[in-house]
Specification:
Helix Hairpins, 5-stranded antiparallel beta sheet, about 15% strand, elongated, alpha+beta, single chain, 4 domains, Beta-Lactamase
Length: about 550
């Protein structure tokens, strides 16, 4: 059942599309019960205490007495069923209308017929039927009420009880019933349309509020909204994380006195709309202030940005420009390098070449190849495309990757082993970039990690609520001096290496909001890739 139909009642069996909100329907039924109780009580009181002009029960007092008491008794018996909702709404509403159509004509007959004016009360009942039940059923009740009045009139004519001229009043009364039923149907239909439109608008507003709340909470930038008394109205997860606090603070002073001072200084000098604050156990944070006016309420927006992240973006911009420059230089170097390599190869094929000269040509070929490898790595770096991030389940992706790596390492069959310390971890990264990062780490592990001493382990774990992949080998590790320069370009401990593999891997990691680091782990040489959690993705702006 659709959400907008869960609390809707469909009381008319002949009009399936007509529905009334449950809360509104029961409220109308209670109001109609109160009206019936008051009118039934007046019928009894006016008859027994003789208030006002004596007209009620003038024709048949005993019939009026029994009918009025029965009418009041039925109303009282239905009270608990209405106010405690012990019975079905549709059955109760139909019972009320049917009893009105039955009892009011009898009271009318006992009071002198149509001319007594009691039959006019049926008009209220027909109008109530249009509101309580509605649809085509309102016309049905109008027809039944008209038939009841005409039946009473025909009976009076057969028994010569009243004047025949009252037949005209009965016809007009029946016509009025149908008119009231039609009007009530039209009004009820319009009310239904208005309620449906209001409900759709309310649902749209709720969805927009949820969407806005989701976007604000998952923004990469920290956002905090403060009122004029410095009480915090709203703060997202990024702001709490960047400020290094655990719970949502209530006042600006609870976050940092330095932040409060910067806020007060901005109020005095609005042109200085940003400040750099230092927090305990956190890096420097840049905060920008702006004014918000919402429904005549003065609020203040504070946007936090990590200085490290700002510097990282600046560095990426510089590296992009440097990449284009190095790509141009690499192309220019490759042309003379190709000529040198070709000349050295031709020289090595000379028949009268001495052994010492042949060794020199081999040196030329070796270094030409090394320079060419450097150029290839530089070109890969300069051709780096934007990250196409996807949601990846490590439980499925990593075992497949390890199986492929084992097939590519015939010298050490099944040397790579996959270990899961945590399952059901989902990451958010470009799968091509992740493969390139792990390819570099696995190649280094094969080359320097002494695979003959044991398996190279790819371990999945979780650190700081973020998925982590560790690549552990059995090598001697890297000394402290080497760790300081490990991810710098062209730093290598091998004569055959270019020193760009780890540098490119770290760049790719940062491009995907991941972190690549090196440290000893359980006495093993270990590279760790801390990845973005796909279940807690932030929106970049």
């Amino acid at each position: 059942m659709p959400p907008n139909q869960i609390d809707t009642i469909y009381p008319c069996a002949f009009s399936k599309g007509y529905g009334i909100p449950s809360k509104q329907a029961w409220l109308l039924l209670k109001i109609f019960f109160i009206y019936r109780f008051i009118s039934a009580s007046l019928f009894v009181m006016l008859f027994f205490f003789r208030f006002g002009p004596y007209a009620l029960g003038t024709h048949d007092g005993q019939l009026y007495q029994l009918t009025s008491l029965g009418y009041l008794g039925i109303s009282l018996l239905n009270a608990p069923f209405i106010f405690r909702r012990l019975a079905d709404y549709t059955h109760l509403a139909q019972l009320f209308i049917f009893t009105d159509i039955l009892f009011i004509p009898v009271l009318m007959h006992a009071s002198g017929g149509v001319t007594s004016g009691v039959g006019g009360l049926l008009a209220i009942s027909i109008a109530a039927a249009g509101l309580l039940i509605g649809g085509r059923c309102a016309l049905l009740f109008a027809a039944l009420a008209s038939l009841a009045v005409l039946t009473e009139q025909v009976y009076a004519m057969q028994t010569h009880t009243f004047d025949f001229r009252s037949l005209n009043y009965s016809g007009l009364l029946g016509i009025s019933f149908f008119a009231i039923a039609l009007i009530s149907m039209i009004l009820a239909h319009r009310v239904e349309q208005s309620a449906s439109l209001a409900q759709r608008h309310a649902q749209t507003i709720v969805r927009l509020e949820e969407l806005n709340r989701y976007i604000i909470q998952h923004l990469q930038s920290g956002i905090m909204i403060v009122d004029a008394q410095q009480f915090i109205v709203l703060s997202n997860h990024s702001a709490i994380r960047q400020l290094g606090i655990h719970d949502s603070p209530t006042h600006l002073a609870d976050v940092s006195p330095m932040l409060q001072q910067a806020f007060l200084a901005w109020n005095q000098f609005p042109e200085q709309d940003f400040a750099i604050i230092q927090l305990q156990n956190a890096e420097d944070i840049k905060v920008r202030f702006s004014l918000l006016t919402v429904e005549d309420e003065r609020l203040h927006l504070l946007m936090f940005e990590d200085i490290g992240l700002y510097n990282q973006r600046l560095q990426q911009s510089k590296l992009a420009s440097l990449g284009r420059l190095t790509a141009s230089i690499a192309h220019e170097i490759r042309n003379p390098l190709s000529a040198i390599s070709h000349a050295g190869q031709l020289l090595s094929e000379a028949s009268d070449l001495k052994a010492e000269d042949l060794r020199l040509t081999r040196i030329i070929q070796t270094h030409c190849q090394r320079v060419n490898n450097i150029i290839e790595d530089i070109l890969k770096l300069s051709r780096r495309h934007a990250s196409q991030k996807q949601r990846i389940c490590l439980d499925q992706w990593l075992p497949t990757y390890v199986q492929e790596q084992n097939l590519l390492s015939p010298e050490y069959p099944q040397v790579f082993q996959c270990v899961f310390r945590r399952n059901d971890l989902n990451i958010y990264i470009d799968p091509g970039h992740l493969k390139q990062i792990l390819d570099n780490l696995c190649a280094n592990a094969i080359k320097y990690g002494q695979p003959e001493l044991g398996n190279i382990i790819l371990e999945v774990d979780c650190e700081a609520n973020r998925p982590c992949i560790r690549v552990m080998d059995n090598g001697p590790g890297i000394d402290q001096e080497g760790v300081l320069h490990l991810f710098e370009p062209f730093f290598t401990t091998s004569r055959q290496g270019t020193g760009l593999g780890l540098y490119i891997s770290r760049e790719l990691a940062e491009l995907n909001q991941a972190e690549l680091s090196y440290a000893k782990y359980h006495e093993k040489s270990c590279f760790s890739v801390l990845l973005a959690n796909a279940d807690h993705v932030v929106i970049e702006i």
